[in-house]
Amino acid sequence: MASPISYAQGLIILLSASMFAVDGFANTTVVGGTENWRFGFNYTNWAIQNSPMYLNDALVFKFDPPNSTTFPHSVYLLRDFQSFLACNLTGAKMVADVTNGGGNGFKFVMKKWQPYYFACGEHDGLHCKIGLMKFAVFPLPRCHF
Ligand SMILES: *[C@@H]1O[C@H](CO)[C@@H](O)[C@H](O)[C@H]1NC(C)=O
Ligand SMILES: *[C@@H]1O[C@H](CO)[C@@H](O)[C@H](O)[C@H]1NC(C)=O
Ligand SMILES: *[C@@H]1O[C@H](CO)[C@@H](O)[C@H](O)[C@H]1NC(C)=O
Ligand SMILES: *[C@@H]1O[C@H](CO)[C@@H](O)[C@H](O)[C@H]1NC(C)=O
Ligand SMILES: [Cu+2]
Question: Which positions fall inside the Phytocyanin domain (predicted)?
């Protein structure tokens, strides 16, 4: 005979099982679509068109490693909104270097409920400023209870 306590415990196990299942709904999106991560594509516009994004969604940055014919790119997280507006790399955190975007690309999972300010860090912020290689995402929690 099931006691109320074991029923409650069963419910908790069920709820946590469906919380784990949330991972199954996470999206993986290639930044820039078929344009990949390159100089001169409007990533702000791309981010608007791909909103909203959710917690645990993954972004894939694809860029060829540098050689004599390709330009180097990278991925940085800028420290705050002001730095994002100004393409100021002071205090930014490099998450992918110039070689990390080859092959299947560099995958970044947005695990925290916070704004993420992505930018290319090459040429001291020039790719960010003039090359439009920056965008912001505030991933939302997925709610489906
Ligand atoms: C990039 O796209 C945004 C959003 O659509 C737009 O406001 C902005 O003017 C565009 N930038 C350029 C340089 O075209
Ligand atoms: C995944 O991303 C695509 C493209 O932005 C969107 O159409 C779709 O609704 C997203 N799926 C989920 C489960 O969020
Ligand atoms: C440079 O890299 C690109 C893309 O990976 C490749 O198509 C091209 O052949 C390479 N060029 C040289 C000179 O290695
Ligand atoms: C960049 O950000 C740092 C830290 O906030 C600040 O000290 C510096 O003045 C900024 N640089 C420019 C050019 O605004
Ligand atoms: Cu770049």
Answer: 27-141
